[in-house]
């Protein structure tokens, strides 16, 4: 007997007197006693798999259970391949960031956004720079303006302690 996964009962694990049986080609064989259903499945060198245990009587299908599990895992792998993982890339700035450094960081953010990732722009304040948060906010607004054709603001500027953060998402 094969190991069972995902709550499907197979062959001798089905503990009910009568079941509705579906043949491998999809035609209904009707309601049969479990012994006769198992004999039919074994005669075809296949398994009796309970597909709808909540139905009355439960519905069982005659199939190759190993092949069924293989195809299910194959579908799961394909689905996993197709999903995209969006990362959050962080770019750190200071209110006194010079123009060249600013353009360099804008180009990095542009690349991150074009790859499909999100960009978290963090403005770090040190010492007395905290009293001039308007400069930091102006620099973040300039950052957004420079990326307006590829990005949309997902989260507006938010002050957290000595940092001001903003999250940009790629435009679709």
Number of helices: 4
Instruction: Tell me the domain tally.
Output: 2
Whole-Å distance between the termini? 51 Å
Sheet with the most strands: spatial strand order:
2-1-4-3
The appropriate CATH architecture of the largest domain is: 2-Layer Sandwich
State the total count of DSSP E strands. 8
Which regions are unreliable across 5 or more consecutive residues at pLDDT < 50?
1-5
What's the helical proportion of residues?
25-40%
Which class do the helix and strand fractions yield?
alpha/beta
Assigned CATH class of the largest domain: Alpha Beta
**Given the C-alpha coordinates, what overall shape results?**
rod-shaped
Main sheet attributes: strand count, strand direction, barrel closure: 4 strands, mixed
**Average pLDDT rating:** 90
Order of helices and strands: EEHEEHEHEHEE
CATH superfamily of the largest domain: Translation initiation factor 3 (IF-3), C-terminal domain
- CATH level 3 topology of the largest domain: Translation Initiation Factor IF3
Radius of gyration: 30 Å
- Strand content of the residues, in percent? 25-35%
Q: Could you walk me through the main structural features you see in this protein, from its secondary elements to its overall organization?
A:
The protein has 172 residues and is of the alpha/beta class. The chain folds into two domains: 11-78, Ubiquitin-like (UB roll) (Roll); 88-170, Translation initiation factor 3 (IF-3), C-terminal domain (Translation Initiation Factor IF3, 2-Layer Sandwich). It contains four helices and eight strands. The chain has helices at 34-43, 65-82, 99-114, 133-146; strands spanning 18-22, 28-33, 47-52, 59-63, 88-93, 118-124, 151-160, 163-170. The strands form two sheets. It has a four-stranded mixed sheet. Strand 3 (47-52) and strand 4 (59-63) form a beta hairpin. The protein is rod-shaped. Residues 1-5 have low confidence and may be disordered.
């Amino acid at each position: 007997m094969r190991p069972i996964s995902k709550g499907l009962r197979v062959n001798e694990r089905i503990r009910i007197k009568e079941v509705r049986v579906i043949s491998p080609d999809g035609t209904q064989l009707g309601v049969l006693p479990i012994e006769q259903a198992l004999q039919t499945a074994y005669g075809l060198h296949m398994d009796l798999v309970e597909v709808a245990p909540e139905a009355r009587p439960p519905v069982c299908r005659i199939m190759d259970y190993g092949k069924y599990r293989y195809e299910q895992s194959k579908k799961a792998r394909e689905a996993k391949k197709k999903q995209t993982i969006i990362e959050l890339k962080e770019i750190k700035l200071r209110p006194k960031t010079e123009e060249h450094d600013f353009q360099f960081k804008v180009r990095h953010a542009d690349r991150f956004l074009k790859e499909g990732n999100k960009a978290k722009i963090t403005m770090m304040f040190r010492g007395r720079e905290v009293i001039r948060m308007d400069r930091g906010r102006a620099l973040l607004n300039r950052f957004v303006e420079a990326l307006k054709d590829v990005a949309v603001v997902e989260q507006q500027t938010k002050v957290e302690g000595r940092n001001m953060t903003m999250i940009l998402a790629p435009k679709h």
